[in-house]
Amino acid sequence: MNEGWFSKVVPVAVGVLGDIRHVSNARQANDLLANHWPGAGTRKHLDAKRACLAAVNGMTTVEDARETFVEAAREARILIE
What we know:
By secondary structure, this protein is an alpha+beta fold. The chain has one domain (about 5-75). It is about 45% helix and about 20% strand. It has a two-stranded antiparallel sheet. Helix 1 packs antiparallel against helix 2 (about 45-55). This is DUF982 domain-containing protein.
């Protein structure tokens, strides 16, 4: 398994205080999606989990995983744009 480095970090606000995290790879995104996601269980959330795990395992491109993660973060209103 690899880290699945993104070409550009994805800044998100997480936690009660909205701490900013700079997600730089699919492994970090997958951890956030699995363990710290607000409102988990939506279609975009599940798609992002699948895509990030697939990118870590070399089954899809890292940029596809990044794009899917960004859409899920936007839906969850944690993406910092």
